[in-house]
Specification:
heterodimer; A: about 270 residues; alpha/beta; Rossmann fold; five-stranded parallel sheet; 8 helices; B: about 220 residues; mainly alpha; 10 helices; about 85% helix; about 0% strand; elongated; Cyt_c_CcmB_bac (chain B); cytochrome c-type biogenesis (chain B); transmembrane helix (chain B)
């Protein structure tokens, strides 16, 4: 039904208006003819390296400043580890990146993904795992694949990769915390999205599964994907940069980051 | 791609309603309970029952619709599925539409189909049963769409069920009025049956547009 897709395109365009209305890459996508073409770019991903730039991010929740002046640039294949004490705002930063929270100031710019909005470019695996307990692992993954689009692997293949092939037909309610987490991680494999946001991905995972996850992340980065993980422990991310969120008051800064040279302007982020 | 995502959403919500703990059969049972309790309260006066029968069925339908509504978005908000949906390459308005459709298929439609059967309990004759069933079929979408707005507004509030009922019930009054008056017009009177029925259909269509947009706006706003 082409008209439905057309409506969808129009709506998404409305919503997409400003992840940087000044951003050249996005604007180029905006005027490009034919949405399908740009969709394909997103799907293949490797051809068009994705880059995420965050500038001057500050978040205030219930009047309390959580952090400010967060800035980083992630090029294709790079990974960022977000660290900090409990309650420092790691999950809050991920929520901002995923579009669930709006930052007080600052901007987020994602380049070279055509017309897709930031939230359409990312996978989120966090504490709220998005799994429905009464449904089987396979049904959960098939739903995520159909909903998110750009399918890459079958639920069976994804689960087998994470060593859960036997749980394919089991309701998620029967699984342990670690197994649930692995089903949620299998979502990363069933459809391709360039940016992975992982909130303590190794929580409840056994050593073997942590190694599998490290392998998954390495492959994703080799294919030009980005990984941002909030974590307390080493994740086996080679050459990952670290963003340490310090308690409010003192400046929260990224490691020296010379790559922020773009002249993109700050602006409110809405998507 | 959009159709595929929406189909997946509807199929998932239907599957969830059918599984253990789902609200599929529950609202129908609740509907039956209310309709069955009223004759006990009023006594075995068949004339009275058949006169107020359509009103009882409609009241029961309104209350039964309210029952499952508080979990419509809240359940997805709690376990993070809602984040999955906002990340889908589908506008949130269509997500709302798909979820409301699935909800109506599991509550409104069964209520409308079961109405003739439950009409027996309140001594309705054949014409009244058919009329009530038809008005419920036309009118329950309005109830679900109006309820979806309240459900979206209370999605992030724990135990938001009561607030939802307080918010939403007053907005359901017009639907209730025209639903009952259409059912009674079928039994005779000065107004032809189609006049209130047309208004009822209009209410459903308006609620469909306004409710979808408002619920999506409420979900975005609450984030």
């Amino acid at each position: 039904m082409p008209w439905v897709d057309a409506c969808g395109a129009a709506w998404t365009r409305l919503g997409a208006r400003d992840i940087g209305s000044s951003d050249r890459a996005l604007r180029a996508g905006f005027f490009r003819k034919g949405r399908r073409k740009s969709r394909c770019c997103l799907r293949q991903g490797q051809d068009h390296p994705v880059r995420l730039t965050a500038q001057n991010l500050a978040v205030r929740r219930s009047g309390r400043r959580i952090f400010s002046d967060i800035a980083f640039t992630l090029d294709a294949g790079e990974a960022l580890m977000v660290t900090g004490r409990n309650g420092a705002g790691k999950s809050t930063l991920l929520a901002v990146l995923s579009g669930r929270l709006k930052p007080e100031t600052g901007s987020l710019i994602v380049d070279d993904v055509g017309e897709a909005t930031l939230s359409e470019c990312l996978h989120v695996v966090g504490h709220r795992d998005g799994l429905k307990s009464p449904l089987t692992a396979e049904e959960n993954l098939a739903f995520a694949r159909d909903l998110l689009g750009a399918p890459t692997a079958s639920p069976r293949a994804a689960l087998e990769e994470l060593g859960l092939g036997h749980a394919l037909k089991l309701p998620v309610a029967y699984l342990s915390a670690g197994q649930r987490r692995r089903v949620a991680l299998a979502r990363l494999l069933v459809c391709r999205r360039p940016l992975w946001l992982l909130d303590e991905p190794t929580a409840a995972l056994d050593v073997a599964s942590q190694a599998v996850l490290a392998g998954m992340m390495a492959r994703h980065r080799a294919a030009g994907g980005l990984v941002i993980a909030a974590t307390h422990q080493a994740l086996g991310l080679d050459g990952a940069r670290e963003l340490r969120i310090e308690p409010a008051r003192s400046e929260a800064t990224a490691l020296p980051d010379a790559s922020v040279t773009r002249d993109a302007v700050a602006g409110d982020v809405w998507w | 791609m959009v159709m595929r995502a929406l189909k997946a959403l509807v199929a998932r919500d239907l599957a969830l309603a059918a599984r253990v703990g789902g609200s599929g059969a529950l609202s129908l049972v609740f509907f039956l309970m209310i309709v069955a309790v009223v004759p006990f309260a009023l006594g075995p006066d068949l004339n009275l029952l058949s006169r107020i029968g359509p009103a009882i069925l409609w009241l029961a339908a309104v209350l039964a619709t309210l029952i499952g509504l508080d979990r419509l978005f809240q359940a997805d908000e709690e376990d993070g599925s809602l984040d999955l949906m906002t990340g889908a390459p589908v506008p949130l308005e269509l997500v709302v539409l798909a979820k409301v459709l699935a909800h109506w298929l599991t509550t409104g439609l069964p209520l409308a189909l079961a109405a003739p059967l439950f009409g027996l309990l309140v001594a309705l004759n054949g014409t009244a049963m058919a009329a009530t069933s038809l008005t419920l079929l036309v009118g329950t979408p309005a109830l679900t769409f109006i309820g979806a707005v309240g459900s979206a507004l209370t999605a992030s509030i724990r135990r938001g069920g009561l607030i939802l009922a307080v918010l939403v019930l007053p907005l359901m009054i017009p639907t209730l009025i025209f639903g009952v008056s259409a059912s009674e017009a079928a039994l005779g009177g000065t107004v032809p049956f189609t006049t209130p029925l047309a208004i009822l259909a209009a209410l459903s269509l308006i609620a469909g547009v306004v409710g979808t947009l408002a619920a999506a706006a409420a979900l975005r706003w609450s984030e």
